[in-house]
Specification:
- With 168 residues, this protein is mostly helical.
- The protein has a single domain, classed as Winged helix-like DNA-binding domain superfamily/Winged helix DNA-binding domain (Arc Repressor Mutant, subunit A, Orthogonal Bundle), CATH 1.10.10.10.
- Helix content is 61%, strand content 6%.
- The chain has a two-stranded antiparallel ribbon.
- A hairpin with a 7-residue loop joins strand 1 and strand 2.
- The chain is globular and about 60 Å long.
- The chain starts with a helix and ends in a 24-residue tail after the last helix.
Length: 168
């Protein structure tokens, strides 16, 4: 492969990443302006509203993230009174997570976040394409030497907020 092809391919990859990151950033800012929550928090709240009760493991699957990352976001939502964590009446070993009435009010004024669109789009890709994309991104991250812990988009480094979300 010649250097021209590498340059064209590299630019196409960079342009695709730029478009995705920009869409995520714009969406996160819109969510924050509308709700006072991060894009990741709105995304998790929306997923919980889709299915009122879920374990952290189930929620991690629905948000395509790991359990520890979604747990941090859920804790922040609990601190703000937007989500409740309760022992299941059916199975006391299980913790159920659900949106509170205040959380539903926040969702009514929230835009759809790009993270949800990204997860849906990945689900619509053929599995072979998705697998190739995962391998290629993993290789790119490895070559770059990026070893950071995986967190939800635009949620990193934020301390949990104790102030309640603005009411509608």
């Amino acid at each position: 492969m010649g250097s021209k092809a590498l340059d064209d391919d590299s630019r196409a990859v960079m342009d695709g990443l730029r478009r995705i990151v920009r869409a995520l950033r714009v969406s996160a800012r819109a969510a924050e302006r509308a709700t006072g929550l991060t894009g990741a928090q709105v995304f998790v709240l929306q997923k919980l509203a889709d299915e009122p009760t879920a374990s952290l493991g189930e929620l991690a699957l629905r948000t395509a993230t790991d359990q520890s990352s979604v747990s941090v976001v859920v804790s922040r939502l609990v601190d703000r009174g937007l989500v409740l964590r309760e022992r299941s009446e059916a199975d006391g070993r299980r913790v159920e997570i659900r949106v509170t009435p205040v959380g539903r009010a926040v969702l009514r004024r929230s835009p759809e976040v790009t993270q949800a669109e990204l997860v849906q789009a990945l689900g619509r890709m053929p599995s072979a394409s998705r697998r190739n994309l995962a391998r290629s991104l993993g290789e790119l991250v490895s070559i770059m030497g990026i070893r950071d812990e995986v967190e939800m988009f635009f949620e990193e480094g934020r301390a949990p907020s104790k102030r309640p979300a603005r009411r509608p």
